[in-house]
Design goal:
alpha/beta, two-stranded antiparallel sheet, 30% helix, 30% strand, Nucleotidyltransferase, domain 5
C-alpha cells in the first residue's frame, strides 16, 4: 500500500469487532489508511491493560499511549475521560465505535474527510 495517510488502532478480542474497553484491551489491530481511503491490516500491537479491578496504572496508560502514538485514531467500545485526554495529548483521537472493525474504520474515514474540509 502506497501513500499512507494515517493509521487506525482497533481494540478487539476477536479481530472482527471493536469490542474492548481501552483500559482492559491487550490487543490493538493496526490498520493503514491510504490517500485513496482504502485500508488494510498491518499488525497486532500487544499491550499491557491499564485497568485491573477498577484501579488504573497511570504509568502503563502513558506507556500504552506512546506505543499507539503512530496512530491518528484509536477505536474502542468504551474509554474514560482520563485515558482519552492522555491519548489526545499524544495527538490521538479516541473514538467509541462498538461495531464491526470494517464498519468502524469506514466511519473514521468519513469523519476524517469531514474534518479535513475545515482545514
Amino acid at each position: 500500500m502506497d501513500n499512507i495517510k494515517y493509521y487506525v488502532a482497533a481494540a478487539s478480542s476477536d479481530g472482527i469487532v471493536v469490542n474492548k474497553h481501552f483500559g482492559r484491551a491487550d490487543t490493538f489491530l493496526i490498520y493503514a489508511v491510504a490517500e485513496d481511503n482504502s485500508y488494510k491490516y498491518i499488525e497486532s500491537l500487544i499491550l499491557t491493560p491499564i485497568c485491573k479491578g477498577g484501579e488504573h496504572d497511570d504509568n502503563k496508560l502513558i506507556r500504552n499511549a506512546e506505543e499507539l502514538s503512530m496512530c491518528k485514531y484509536v477505536l474502542v467500545s468504551r474509554i474514560g475521560p482520563g485515558a482519552s485526554n492522555v491519548l489526545e495529548s499524544k495527538g490521538i483521537t479516541a473514538m467509541e465505535i462498538p461495531d464491526l472493525i470494517d464498519n468502524a474504520i469506514k466511519k473514521v474515514i468519513s469523519y476524517d474527510e469531514v474534518q479535513n474540509l475545515f482545514k
